[in-house]
């Protein structure tokens, strides 16, 4: 199973666009919050794959009313937690393990800083950065997760400037 992972799209704004070439071919799309407006969620749904999202701190009232603060999905035997803001960097891996004790991995956003960490038990946290709002990062990024044989692996995609 191929899972496209995005966060912090902050759209519509300027010339920003979703990386549809990487999203449409996925089996599932996960968005870790800060879509900003309903139209972005609708555009994601129009691509075809099922979309699962959590709400972020800048999402409009329509999204705030419909998206959960956190969620857990089971995809081919792998439990993936989702939350927008995973808190300060210090202690994040351990904090997410406590917050999501039964999950294999947690996807989060908010910082726009790509991150992938794994603890000794194999629990992973993954932030795909932002495909549309790189802020102080050198390039736009998103993630791909591959699920097979009850395991998930994450890959960061560099989308350029």
User: Strand pairing plus helix content: what structural class?
Assistant: alpha/beta
Largest sheet: 5 strands, mixed
**Overall outline:** globular
Spatial order of the strands forming the largest sheet? 3-2-1-9-10
Weakly predicted, low-confidence segments? none
- Percent helix range: 10-25%
What is the straight-line distance between the termini?
A: 28 Å
Number of helices: 4
Strand content: 25-35%
Give the SSE order as H and E letters: EHEHEHEEHEEEEE
Rg to the nearest angstrom?
Answer: 14 Å
**Extended strand count:** 10
Overall average pLDDT? 96
Describe the structure.
The chain has 161 residues and is of the alpha/beta class. Helices cover 17% and strands 34% of the residues. It is built from four helices and ten strands. It has helices spanning 20-23, 38-46, 61-66, 92-99, and strands at residues 2-6, 28-31, 51-53, 70-75, 78-83, 105-107, 115-118, 124-127, 140-148, 151-160. A five-stranded mixed beta sheet has the order 3-2-1-9-10, covered by helices on one side. A five-stranded mixed beta sheet has the order 4-5-6-8-7, with helices on one face. It is globular and about 40 Å long. The mean pLDDT is 96.
């Amino acid at each position: 199973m191929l899972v496209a992972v995005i966060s912090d799209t902050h759209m519509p704004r300027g010339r920003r666009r979703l990386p549809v070439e990487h999203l449409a071919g996925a089996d599932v799309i996960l968005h870790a919050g800060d879509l900003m407006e309903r139209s972005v969620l609708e555009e994601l749904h129009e691509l075809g794959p099922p979309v699962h999202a959590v709400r972020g701190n800048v999402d409009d009232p329509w999204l705030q009313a419909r998206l959960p603060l956190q969620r857990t999905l089971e995809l081919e035997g792998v439990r993936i937690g989702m939350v927008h803001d995973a808190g300060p960097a210090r202690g994040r891996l351990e904090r997410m393990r406590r917050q999501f004790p039964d999950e294999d991995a947690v996807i989060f956003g908010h910082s726009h800083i790509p991150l992938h960490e794994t603890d000794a038990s194999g629990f992973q946290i993954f932030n795909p950065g932002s495909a549309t709002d790189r802020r102080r990062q050198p390039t736009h990024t998103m993630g791909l997760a591959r699920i097979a044989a009850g395991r998930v692996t994450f890959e960061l995609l560099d989308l350029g400037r």
